[in-house]
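Budget justification aside, the reviewers requested a transparent look at the raw inputs and outputs of the sequence design task funded under Objective 1. We therefore reproduce one unedited record. The lines immediately below are the structure tokens for a 1191-residue chain.
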């Protein structure tokens, strides 16, 4: 402004006055400032910074000129009152086209971030013009990196570049990239990793609108964190070829005399109206304020306006210049911009000649950067080469060049390869340009010959291999003939043989044992493991060598491998028999007290066995878990089930359900879980991880991952494989600290052994030395320890007997609770007291029948599980409602629901009102009920009620039922079947009873014909009044829990699984334990009561106290209650008619125990399977008649 106002040759007698406003680049603030200035009669606008499209429209509305110096938005270019000295982003596309034309690259791909999309679109349009005739192979748009990382999207990772380069690299050689320098480096680093720059075939052209400076140019090659390391660029492998494959188009740096201009800018900044002085803290140091290139653009905009205004005012001779004329011309935006555009060029403050296009936009001045020798130092980082300008785009005669600038190369470019890269391979991307060779026939013949030789070689090797295997099988010592096993037919057809119960010690008889398949081989008891296959299994040579190696293992802590029986469809592995079962069974049995010395002995036995295996030729176990560690009769732990991974892997996965399969993986290391294809083979570090889980299992005694807060094995395995956080998922070590053995040394070994990184886990030699303190420095004999255990067991025997007695009484209470659910309370009480139940007549009762309309069709369209879940939810709702009324639920058959009132306890005339009020409540509940798997359908209930006489009694020996007999039952059923959906159909007798009682609203239906009946008049029950029977208040918390548990998602869990008892941590209602092949005694009905006595989840009782001559009155050794009279032949009951009318003289607890056994058998079909064994031990062999007389 000072230069214009002081220049007498420019705008004489006209003074330009400044009015400024800092709008901070905000559109709303800028628009408000513009409107205020328009009201103050401002002549022209210079700016704004940032966005300018809305502001240009506002200025256009008043025809006021606006010349922007810092706005790259392409949209204002079409506004006739707008011009700018900063080139818009789209202007750089002309320079990119000129660069491609200079090096004759006519095929290229565009990679752009979203913010550069207009520039990419402009480049694509320019390339497709006829004058250029270029081809864009690909155009890929990616999200801005900052936005990706802010939203935590996959594009924040560098892996997105790998996918993008893989998609485009085979159809392009030249990439034009629009985006941030960080994304540029990620893209080129990915290309370098794919070795695309090794031969110099690829080039990346990057575009940046910022002005070049050596310091700023480092961002195209290195990320900021690189400068923190004291190294050189030459220490980075592959960096030089990557840098030589990069060309950058940037705004040209100002000339040398530009410093004079920036010095004047600093001077004027300190004056009015800005008053921007140098801070005092910098006055005594070499501090220079940075002046951006936009100061030159602002200077150019004012100078252009002043020249255009001078030409419009003084350009015409003889014109009368007045003040009004000056104001009118100064504010005429259209004329001002037209005059500026007409000048076409101007000399910028940067020292360059700048062209203006037809829209008044500056075309800028751009240069090309390439990697050349240039010393640069940034902090501790040095490099002898850098990106420097090697050429400049000169506007020149644009008409000859089609309107594009011309690239003038000052320095030759050092390409990554021997010569300039081409935009397409010499043979084309699909090799279509190269002619086919004449030797095609000879190549085909060579291929055929090679295939024939290969087939012949394979055939020969296969025959030789088969012959070799046969020779080895004939001489192998591990192969056992089925005839060598004692009674092999019986052994191999039985699903299990009792193994550990054969021990003769008192502890073996009183400690529950697990079933294992055993046999006799050459006079000794051996353990057999059957591995079945779905198809014929051929044993590989490596497997046979492994069996031969395993047979040679002799160690006190390694379970001896004796041999194997080989058959086409299965293999039976024969190993040493251990009478005490597995370590898993011992840990789960809480009757066995494991003190510190016992734990130390087991742990050190396990370590010694693993040291032997890891030091052997086999090298590892591969399937270590507590179930694969067995304990001999001398309480010596032995490692079992090692090796033979290929044979064990297939049958184990096929013979167990989904639940058991995931349970078997609880001891598997995370790296093996992630490698499903080869993880079953195991590693030494995987064995160390399994040892840590077993160590936690022995100390805590809650199963693997016990107390971790997770119950599903599948969920635990998934958390170990892929943890949700950086902290790996492991068992809770706080439970170890609470135990006697849980010292910090033990916890340290445990945590180190299950480390996520396998390399961080110690070997078993290190573990052995670190756990020496576990034994307290003593080498005590294990038998001495056993004697101490027996003393402790004797001291705890009295407590154990008291606990068992409490469990018996608790089982009795549960049995009675279940019996009261199945029979009316008076009838159940009479039966349990020893009385017979005779049929009884009732003069007047009211019977309710209902069914679901359309149930058959809905069942056909639903799965069986959906139907069962639906009926259970519906009838549970009904049961809660009828709990408030004096009614008795007789039965449910499919969708039919039957309720009666007035029996077995008579209630006067209330029975009709109770059924009527209950029916209205049930109907209201059904109208609001939503079917879970068909929520859009309305449940239609059809209800029928009849009042009349009936006879009731207990019928049958097997599964006795309390049944109703008489025409009243049939009539009530007919009332239901002849009713209508969502209505209550009542008979004349019921209507009379309701009128007598009062409080109910009925409507006549008319005469209807019912099957087997005369035409009768019936009614609809439509409502009730205040006088109707009201339900009593019911505390829902006192209701018994449901008998029905929803099935697991995987039906495989219902199949046979490992006979070992499952861990207490994983047993819930949603995940019932799998049925065991053999059942010992009647099991507890624990899920039935609403509250349970606190007890250990895995308590086990003595197998049979009767073996030592103990006489149990009412309590057997297996925990079952048996009635003494039922064991005497002359006191059997063969029918209900022979039941005495008088109560039994002996009302012992044992009398009710038979009901408990009967109820257990009712739900499990194993009424006598369990107790037969115990009864036969005391001489009762013929138990079949006893089954008939149990009722």
């Amino acid at each position: 402004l000072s230069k214009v106002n002081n220049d007498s040759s420019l705008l004489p007698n006209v003074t330009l006055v400044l009015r400024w406003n800092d709008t901070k680049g905000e559109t709303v603030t800028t628009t408000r400032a513009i409107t205020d200035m328009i009201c103050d009669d401002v002549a022209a606008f210079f700016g704004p910074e940032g966005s300018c499209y809305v502001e240009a429209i506002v200025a256009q509305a008043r025809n006021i000129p606006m010349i922007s110096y810092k706005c790259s938005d392409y949209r204002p270019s079409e506004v006739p009152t707008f011009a700018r000295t900063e080139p818009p982003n789209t202007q750089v596309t002309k320079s990119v086209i000129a660069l491609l034309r200079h090096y004759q690259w006519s095929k290229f791909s565009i990679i752009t971030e979203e913010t550069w999309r207009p520039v990419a679109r402009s480049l694509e349009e320019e390339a497709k013009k006829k004058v250029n005739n270029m081809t864009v192979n690909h155009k890929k748009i990616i999200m801005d990196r900052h936005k990706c990382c802010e939203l935590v999207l996959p594009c924040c990772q560098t892996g997105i570049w790998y996918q993008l380069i893989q998609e485009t690299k085979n159809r392009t050689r030249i990439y034009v990239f629009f985006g941030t320098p960080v994304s540029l480096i990620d893209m080129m680093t990915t290309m370098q990793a794919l070795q695309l720059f090794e031969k110099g075939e690829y080039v990346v052209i990057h575009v940046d609108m910022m002005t070049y400076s050596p310091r700023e140019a480092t961002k195209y090659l290195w990320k900021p964190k690189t400068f923190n390391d004291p190294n050189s660029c030459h220490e980075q492998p592959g960096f030089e070829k990557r840098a030589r494959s990069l060309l950058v188009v940037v705004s040209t740096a100002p000339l040398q005399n530009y410093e004079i201009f920036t010095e004047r800018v600093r001077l004027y900044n300190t004056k009015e109206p800005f008053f921007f002085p140098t801070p005092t803290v910098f006055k005594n140091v070499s501090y220079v304020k940075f002046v951006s290139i936009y100061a030159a653009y602002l200077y150019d905009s004012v100078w252009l306006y002043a020249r255009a205004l001078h030409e419009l005012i003084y350009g015409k001779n003889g014109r009368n210049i007045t003040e009004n004329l000056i104001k009118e011309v100064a504010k005429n935006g259209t004329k001002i911009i037209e005059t500026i555009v007409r000048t076409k060029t101007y000399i910028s403050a940067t020292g360059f000649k700048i062209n203006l296009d037809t829209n008044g936009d500056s075309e800028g001045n751009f240069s090309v950067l390439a990697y050349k020798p240039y010393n640069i130092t940034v902090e501790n980082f040095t490099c002898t080469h850098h990106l420097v300008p090697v050429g400049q785009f000169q506007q020149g005669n644009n008409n000859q060049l089609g309107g594009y600038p011309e690239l003038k190369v000052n320095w030759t470019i050092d390409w990554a390869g021997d010569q300039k890269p081409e935009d397409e391979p010499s043979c084309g991307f699909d090799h279509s340009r190269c002619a086919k060779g004449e030797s095609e026939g000879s190549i085909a013949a060579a291929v055929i010959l090679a295939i024939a030789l290969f087939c012949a070689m394979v055939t020969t090797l296969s025959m030789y291999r088969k012959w070799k295997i046969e020779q080895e099988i004939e001489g192998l010592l591990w192969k056992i003939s089925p005839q060598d096993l004692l009674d092999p037919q019986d052994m191999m057809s039985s699903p299990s043989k009792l193994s550990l119960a054969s021990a003769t010690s008192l502890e073996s008889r009183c400690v529950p044992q697990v079933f294992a398949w055993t046999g006799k081989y050459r006079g000794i008891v051996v353990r057999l493991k059957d591995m079945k296959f779905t198809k014929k299994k051929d044993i590989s040579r490596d497997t046979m060598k492994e069996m031969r190696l395993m047979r040679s293992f002799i160690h006190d802590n390694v379970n001896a491998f004796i041999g194997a029986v080989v058959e086409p469809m299965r293999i039976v592995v024969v190993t040493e028999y251990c009478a005490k079962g597995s370590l898993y069974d011992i840990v789960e049995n809480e009757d066995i007290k494991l003190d510190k010395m016992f734990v130390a002995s087991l742990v050190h036995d396990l370590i010694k066995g693993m040291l032997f295996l890891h030091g052997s030729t086999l090298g590892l176990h591969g399937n270590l878990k507590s179930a694969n560690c067995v304990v001999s009769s001398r309480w010596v732990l032995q490692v079992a089930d090692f090796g033979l991974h290929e044979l064990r892997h297939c049958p184990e996965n096929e013979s167990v359900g989904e639940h058991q399969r995931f349970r078997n993986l609880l001891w598997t290391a995370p790296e093996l879980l992630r490698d499903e294809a080869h993880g079953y083979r195991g590693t030494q570090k995987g064995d160390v991880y399994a040892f840590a889980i077993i160590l936690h299992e022995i100390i805590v005694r809650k199963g693997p991952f016990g107390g971790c807060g997770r119950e599903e094995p599948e969920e635990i395995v998934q958390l170990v494989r892929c943890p949700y956080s950086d902290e790996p998922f492991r068992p809770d070590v706080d439970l170890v600290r609470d135990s006697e053995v849980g010292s910090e040394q033990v916890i340290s070994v445990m945590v180190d052994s299950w480390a996520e990184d396998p390399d961080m886990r110690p070997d078993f030699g290190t573990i052995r030395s670190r756990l020496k303190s576990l034994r307290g420095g003593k080498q005590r004999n294990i038998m001495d320890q056993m004697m101490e255990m027996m003393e402790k067991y004797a001291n705890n025997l009295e407590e154990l007997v008291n606990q068992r007695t409490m469990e018996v009484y608790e089982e009795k209470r549960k049995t009675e609770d279940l019996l009261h659910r199945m029979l009316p309370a008076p009838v159940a009480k009479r039966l349990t007291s020893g009385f017979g139940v005779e049929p009884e007549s009732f003069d007047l009762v009211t019977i309710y029948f209902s069914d679901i309309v359309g149930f058959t069709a809905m069942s056909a369209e639903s799965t069986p599980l959906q139907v069962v879940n639906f009926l259970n939810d519906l009838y549970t709702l009904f049961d809660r409602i009828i709990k408030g009324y004096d009614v008795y639920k007789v039965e449910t058959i499919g969708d039919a629901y039957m309720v009666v009132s007035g029996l077995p306890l008579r209630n006067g005339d209330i029975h009709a009102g109770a059924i009527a009020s209950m029916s209205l409540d049930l109907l209201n509940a059904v109208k609001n009920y939503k079917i879970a798997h068909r929520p859009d359908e309305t449940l239609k209930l059809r209800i029928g009620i009849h009042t009349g006489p009936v006879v009731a009694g207990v019928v049958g020996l097997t599964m006795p039922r309390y049944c109703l007999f008489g025409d009243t039952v049939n009539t009530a059923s007919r009332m239901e079947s002849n009713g209508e959906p969502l209505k209550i159909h009542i008979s004349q007798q019921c209507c009379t009873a309701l009128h007598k009682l009062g409080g109910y609203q009925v409507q006549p239906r008319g005469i209807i014909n019912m099957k087997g009946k005369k035409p009768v008049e019936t009614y609809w029950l439509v409502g009730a009044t205040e006088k109707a029977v009201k339900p009593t208040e019911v505390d829902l918390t006192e209701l018994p829990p449901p008998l029905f548990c929803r099935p697991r998602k995987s039906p495989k869990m219902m199949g046979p699984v490992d006979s070992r008892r499952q861990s207490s941590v994983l047993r819930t209602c949603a995940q019932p334990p799998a049925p065991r092949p053999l059942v010992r005694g009647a099991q507890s009905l624990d899920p039935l009561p609403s509250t349970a006595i606190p007890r250990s989840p895995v308590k086990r009782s003595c197998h049979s106290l009767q073996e030592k001559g103990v006489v149990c009155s009412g309590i057997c050794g297996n925990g079952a209650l048996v009635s003494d009279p039922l064991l005497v032949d002359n006191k059997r009951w063969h029918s209900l008619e022979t039941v005495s009318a008088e109560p039994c003289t002996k009302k012992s607890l044992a009398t009710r125990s038979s009901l408990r056994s009967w109820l257990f058998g009712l739900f499990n079909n194993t009424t006598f399977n369990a107790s037969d064994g115990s009864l036969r031990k005391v001489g009762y062999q013929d138990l079949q008649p006893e089954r008939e007389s149990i009722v």
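Residues 268 and 274 are 8 Å apart (CA to CA). DSSP finds 37 helices and 29 strands in the chain. Computational costs for records of this kind are itemized in the attached budget.
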